[in-house]
Amino acid sequence: MTNFQRVLSPMELGSKTVRNRIVSTPHATGWELDGGLISDREADYLIRKAKGGAGLVMTFGSASVDPTTAASYGAVALWDEQNEPQLRRMAKEIHAHGSLLISQATHMGNRGSSKNTFTPVRGVSTLPEPDHREVSVPLTKAELQQLIQRYVDVAQRLERCGWDGIEITSFAHLIGQFWNSGFNDRTDEYGGSLENRMRFGKEVVAAVNAATGDDFLISFRMSLEFQTKTRDFEIPTNELKTIAVEMANTGDIDMLSVTVGDAMNNPGLSVAMGSDFIPPATAKEVAADVAREIEIPLLVTGRILTGEAAEEILASQSADLVGMTRAIIADPDMPQKLASGQSVRECIGINQGCIGRLYSGYPIICSVNPAIRTPELESLEPSQQIGKVVVVGAGAAGLEAAKHAAKRGHEVVILERDDAVGGRARINAEHGWRPSWQKYLDYIEAELQVLGVQFEFGAAATADAVLAHSPDSVVIATGSRLRPNFLSNSNLKAVDGDRIVAEPPQPNGNNKALIIDEEAHMVAPNAAEVLGNNGWDVTIATPLQMLGGEIDSTLIPVVHQKLAPYKPQVIPNARALNAEGSAVVLENVMTGETSGIEDIGLLVVSGHRESETDLLEELVQRAPELDIRRVGDAHAPRDLDAATDEGALVGASIG
Question: Class assignment of domain 482-610?
């Protein structure tokens, strides 16, 4: 008997029945074609969610109802009739798998972008958002009525193409901007009182409801708590709850979808797109307050990553449906696995592969599920030539290589010099900011055991150890190391940032620490926090224009919040030029000017790594005909997403 009776139970949604309470909520992918056309890749990705058992598949985050508005990272153009063939195909195939299908639709308002078209964005007023800073041309009353018709046209298109409904979103978009007196300074019937500020949103849902059939579902999405840390752009939570109840009681919507956070600035975004730094089920409590006051189904979203969390939300009557989007990205079969009792590959919530990449201008992947980027990895054919594969190194890249080689039928053994799997990921999980990585390591280690992969821990990475197994193929996954002789004139030995995180030293008379950050991601800030907590006075020098210049906007606020108590000095645009004794000379990468930092007690380096190639060179010399492949940092130092992706692809390519 499953423990997820509520999660897996059907329910009525309008005149339709959704087979379970699991929802994949709308999100963009960055896979749309030029002009906002739906790609086959995007359609297949969404169909796959239905095949995996999601009750309701919601699509196309920030999909546009009007050609004058699109998200800065691109959006599906629902206003374009050229998308109808894909819309019809998706409806047919998603329904065939048993899911309901709803698309989000919106106008971005002043959160749009003029950078591609050079056409001014259209919005509530001329007042810009704090982060996006676009100054919009205020929409006239006549244009608002035309825009309402655009929503209607899109809803009718979806209905015509066989879709079950539409989600109209206010979240950080035009409808929500009307509510916000920080942006809305209008003096007509759309500004001033809350009743007036709600008018446009109500007119949209009323018009869509009137223009579509009784069976066509209308969902409305909003935030119940901004958490933007701004003093003049926040809508008070009690006012947002009032809006939620009023919208639910209009009689024009069938489902209310709620979250917390906002996308007007990075602190709000870090909550709305919460990473593993943010508590799970972020919107549960505030959603429960609204659930008690409305009669229509309530969908809650925000870091609901496990069946247990979803079941608890439903049991507490905080919501009727649960958004589990990133959980489904990590494991599209999660709903079916909850029903069958199989092990689920959990989303670890680090954001850098999915939403973080999107907000950095790249298409999404998944840090723990390489098949999101390469779907063919889900259906590997058995090898025609079964062989013996030795993988040297049990970091993320080596583990994925071993898994995918074993899935093709090869006999696989992993040689690992440490006493546990994980490599740099394990250091981060055990000592650093990302303990959630351990979930991934535990899951893949268990998978490898089921696949019959052998582990040899404490095994030296030598040619003799490898060749003793008589391998047909070898995968070198030995990782990377700090380059030797960094600032060799210094009498301070440079210490790898990873080692600082794992084994923080105590000051010995001189507490002045300098971190040279060439990686520009999490290692240097993590090391700075650890050192600050141990009494060091920390300076971080980076060649980029800001601390953590490669960290995405869903994570960077948390980095600053973690470092705030220690107040490290940050020197941007600076690289280490040379050193003498305990002094380091920095060169400004913009001007070429130099400056010195004297009397350093600890020199730490993040980045500046090189691949471990000793074993490769020895094997090439000893066994020149042997099939040898490199993955992850052993190929070229990169991040953990590259490690899991490349490891999977190389393992799958053997034989």
Answer: alpha beta
What is the number of residues in the chain? Answer: 655
Q: Does the pLDDT value for residue 474 go beyond 70?
A: yes
Among the residues of 507-578, which ranges form H helices?
A: 523-533, 556-563
Q: Determine the pLDDT at residue 2.
A: 62
Dihedrals phi, psi of 602, to nearest 5 degrees: -150, 130
The second-level CATH assignment, the architecture, of 11-347 is Alpha-Beta Barrel (3.20)
The answer to whether the beta carbons of residues 54 and 22 sit under 8 Å apart is yes
- By CB neighbour count within 10 A (0-12 exposed, 13-18 middle, 19+ buried), where does 67 fall? middle
Query: Residue 297's pLDDT is what?
Result: 98
Of 402, 408, 418, the C-alpha closest to 476 is 402
Sequence spans of domains, the chain: 11-347, 379-479+612-653, 482-610
Whether residue 299 has pLDDT greater than 60: yes
Q: Flag whether the pTM goes above 0.85.
A: yes
Give the whole-angstrom CA distance, residue 487 versus residue 480. Answer: 19
Residue 1 scores a pLDDT above 70: no
Q: d(Cα 65, Cα 138) in Å, to the nearest integer?
A: 18
Distance between CA atoms of residues 570 and 574, nearest Å: 10
Report in angstroms the alpha-carbon separations of 298 from 84, 219, 383, 639: 29, 10, 48, 38
- Please report which helix (H) or strand (E) contains residue 285, including its range: helix 284-291
Alpha-carbon gap, residue 95 to 97, rounded angstroms: 5
State the average pLDDT for the chain: 95
Alpha-carbon distance 435 to 276, whole Å? 9
Query: Do the Cβ atoms of 314 and 320 come closer than 8 Å?
Result: yes
Reading the block at residue 15, the tokens are 């005149």
Query: Mean pLDDT over residues 343-359, rounded?
Result: 96
Average pLDDT estimate for 609-621: 96
pLDDT at 490: 77
The span from the CA of 399 to the CA of 119, in Å, is 49
- Residue 229 banded pLDDT, cuts 50, 70, 90: confident
| Residues 416/393, Cβ–Cβ less than 8 Å | yes
Q: What is the CATH number of domain 379-479+612-653?
A: 3.40.50.720
Please tell me the predicted confidence (pLDDT) of residue 484.
87
How do 16-18 and 11-13 pair as beta strands?
Answer: antiparallel
Phi, psi of 501 (to 5 degrees): -65, -40
